[in-house]
UniProtKB/TrEMBL annotation:
NCBIfam families: PRK06076.1-2. Coiled coil: none annotated. It comes from the Bacteria. One of its GO terms (molecular function) is oxidoreductase activity. Pfam families: NADHdh. NDH-1 shuttles electrons from NADH, via FMN and iron-sulfur (Fe-S) centers, to quinones in the respiratory chain. The immediate electron acceptor for the enzyme in this species is believed to be ubiquinone. Couples the redox reaction to proton translocation (for every two electrons transferred, four hydrogen ions are translocated across the cytoplasmic membrane), and thus conserves the redox energy in a proton gradient. This subunit may bind ubiquinone. Belongs to the complex I subunit 1 family. Its EC number is 7.1.1.-. Keywords: Cell membrane, Membrane, NAD, Oxidoreductase, Quinone, Translocase, Transmembrane, Transmembrane helix, Ubiquinone. This is NADH-quinone oxidoreductase subunit H. InterPro entries: NADH_UbQ_OxRdtase_su1/FPO, NADH_UbQ_OxRdtase_su1_CS.
Length: 346
């Protein structure tokens, strides 16, 4: 029992550290991708190729003066970024980062918590995250912050519906809410009769999911809650120092978690082609699967950044029309067609 607890504690610390490291260096990668697309150099002063720039930015955030407006609700002003950061980190505990690994005759899974309602857990935690933005925007007692918070809440509520409906079609296909079982099915495990990634069976569902993920993460072209040209900085206009850092970090952690979810649900998770035909040691296959999983995550993170520096921002009415008039009817049609196909195949 003690060995199991030590392993789980080590896994928690590892996932926590990797999540923060990826979020930190996503800021560096974002600036490098932007520079590449705009024919610039990007960060190149702090360390070789600017590799220490995220550390310099972190030190800057810590050293900046902490400002809390006199007219703000001070308690909620502090609570807002804390909620955003905590909920962003919590979503990663149910993601399967790899298959099983054997150490000293004991078999362990590379997943902090394998609960049978993993998808519902993720949606529950993500839906709480919007409160961090709403509370921060309202507690600032600033009209621009309040407008950003209202936009964020309306946007997230609108696109969570379409995202949930796109996942329902996937659940009908797999018959489980466990993220680990969904990943194993795509590699031919858990009694599955297919060895194909879910994106082949649910291309429309994946397209809707990734669009909604952009909206949930407040990423371009859905960054209306921040929208510097209209709202100065949106819901975090009045924030400074590490409170602002928490909001910015939470956005990048959410991007990392969304990428991991897309890789798990639609692109095989820790499975990779021909893994069962290589004849390698199971532990080595697990390690290679984890590397493949992070490569998939890296691709989706790059895709988030690529879109940011390619597409312009939607107008607010276009944002709402896309969510309510296009994505939700399309998601309902996808659920109906998936159910019909399941009936006909049986």
């Amino acid at each position: 029992m003690s060995t199991f607890l030590i392993y789980k504690l080590a896994l928690v610390l590892a996932v926590f550290g990797i999540t923060l490291l990826v979020a930190m260096y996503s800021t560096y990668l974002e600036r490098k991708v932007a520079a590449f697309m705009q024919d610039r150099v990007g960060p190149d002063r702090a360390g070789p190729f600017g590799i220490l720039q995220p550390l310099a930015d972190g030190v800057k955030m810590f050293m900046k003066e902490e400002i809390i407006p006199n007219v703000s609700n001070k308690f909620l002003f502090i609570v807002g970024p804390c909620i955003a950061m905590i909920t962003a980190i919590m979503a990663g505990v149910v993601i399967p980062w790899g298959n099983t690994i054997t150490i000293g005759g004991e078999t362990y899974t590379l997943q902090i918590a394998d609960i049978n309602i993993g998808i519902l857990y993720v949606f529950g935690v993500v839906s709480i995250g919007v409160y961090g933005i709403m509370i921060g925007g309202w507690a600032s007692n600033n009209k621009y912050s309040l407008l950003g918070a209202i936009r964020a809440s309306a946007q997230m509520i609108s696109y969570e519906l379409a995202m949930g409906l796109s996942i329902i079609a996937l659940i009908m296909l797999t018959g489980t809410l466990s993220l680990r079982e969904i990943a194993l099915m795509q590699g031919g495990g858990v009694g599955s009769d297919w060895n194909m990634w879910n994106v082949v069976y649910q291309p429309v569902g994946f397209l809707m999911f990734i669009i909604c993920a952009f909206a949930e993460c407040n990423r371009m072209p859905f960054d209306l809650p921040e929208s510097e040209t209209e709202l100065v900085g949106g819901y975090h206009t009045e924030y400074s120092s590490m409170k602002l850092g928490f909001y910015l970090f939470a956005e990048y952690i959410n991007m990392f978690t969304s990428s991991a979810l897309m890789a798990t649900l639609y692109f095989g998770g820790f499975n990779f082609p021909f893994q069962n035909d290589l004849g390698l040691d199971p532990n080595l296959v697990t390690i290679l699967g984890t590397v493949a999983f992070f490569l998939k995550i890296g691709f989706f993170i790059f895709f988030f950044m690529w879109v940011r520096w390619t597409l312009p921002r939607f107008r607010y009415d276009q944002l709402m029309n896309l969510g309510w008039k296009i994505l939700i009817p399309l998601a309902i049609a996808n659920v109906a067609i998936t159910g019909l196909v399941k009936i006909l195949v049986k």
